[in-house]
Amino acid sequence: MAELFGLFSYFLHFALLICLRFAPKRACEEVTVADALIRIYYQVSAFFSALRPHWHWLLLLLLLLSVQFALNSYIGEFKQAWEWDWVDIVGEGLSALMVFCWLLLILSVRTKGRVTHLFALGLILLDIALVQDLLDEFIRLPENIQWDSVLEASPVGLLLITAAFWCWRREQQTTNLYLGKRQHIFSQPNDLDKSLHIPDLAYLKQNLIKRAANLAQWQHTGLLFIEVRQFNHLLHQHGAKHGNQLLLKVSELLLLSLRANDLLCHYAAARFVVVFSDVRPEQARQLAAELQQNIESFSLPVAGEACRLTIDSGLALASSANSSQSLLNQALDDLAKNKQSND
User: Where are the transmembrane segments (predicted)?
Assistant: First the structure.
């Protein structure tokens, strides 16, 4: 089955070349047609590549359908064309086809695991039941044969799918706890830092300007700068690749430590900015100390070596007397003062 996926990929590539060869040659449309064909080819190829790890489920479905058709053909007799009920044939055929499409879609987006196995087995059994219902429209089985009715009415497939949805629900609840802190991040995809996948400086300034326009919200806002002290040394020692990986790990650790309504942004180099929402001065200082302690208590791997980071921080609290830019400058001044005292 895995080899079939490879052959199918080669067939798609060959079909793409043929289509490009005979595509319309008008200057205004040639690039558009070629680009569309290439996009379709890569989307279909990526879809079947995602199915490759689950080829055994598709092989199982093919074997079960083959055995099912062989048994029906051997035991029963084919009906005459005038006995066919086209309404049932179309309805039951489309139902079986849709369940098969569900199976392909789920397998194409999930990795191997218990939830995937439950979904796959449940959908396969459900598809087998629907196909048996379809075969009854073409093949008449003897009256003493009951296994076809049992197969059509069996709830095992639906029970397995229900169990899969229940396990998926628990899985999704865990995922939502993590993604909940990112939902306000991905709402502005154009302002994300491309390497760290968190908002950049432009988004930070927009957010602060918006907060400053609401005085009640602005007076309960805190701004914390966090800088990895030995980042330049690690960058010089291990290179840019490992340096970016370190910053990504630090950003993930900060995200896990933040409250749901706080915002994390990348300022520049090894500097991060945390915007605290709805905080009092004492609470902001406590949260800042906890974040610094969380980062410094972890040993993060850098180029295969455990590295315990040290952090410099600078905190500023908003008031009606300062603007968004002055709040940034105040936090930067506090960071510089703390760095000087730590050196």
Answer: 6-23, 55-74, 86-106, 118-135, 147-168
How many alpha carbons lie under 13 Å from residue 206 in its C-beta half-sphere? 10
Residue extents of the structural domains in the chain: 2-175, 191-342
To 5 degrees, how large is the angle CA 15–CA 16–CA 20?
Answer: 120
Which of 266, 181, 202 is CA-nearest to residue 228? 266
- CA-angle at 17, arms to 15 and 22, nearest 5°: 95
Q: What are phi and psi of 14, to 5 degrees?
A: -65, -40
The predicted-structure confidence for 117-161, as pLDDT tens digits, reads as follows 999 999 999 999 999 999 888 888 888 888 878 888 888 999 999
How far, rounded to the nearest angstrom, does the alpha carbon of residue 263 sit from its chain's CA centroid?
Answer: 21
DSSP, residue by residue, 119-141:
HHHHHHHHHHHHHHHHHTTTEEP
62-71 per-position pLDDT tens digit: 999 999 999 9
The whole-angstrom separation of Cα 324 and Cα 330 is 10
Q: In terms of residues, how long is the chain?
A: 343
Assigned architecture for domain 191-342: 2-Layer Sandwich (3.30)
Q: What distance in Å separates the CA atoms of residue 124 and residue 107, rounded to the nearest whole number?
A: 12
CA-CA-CA-CA torsion sign (256, 262, 267, 270): negative
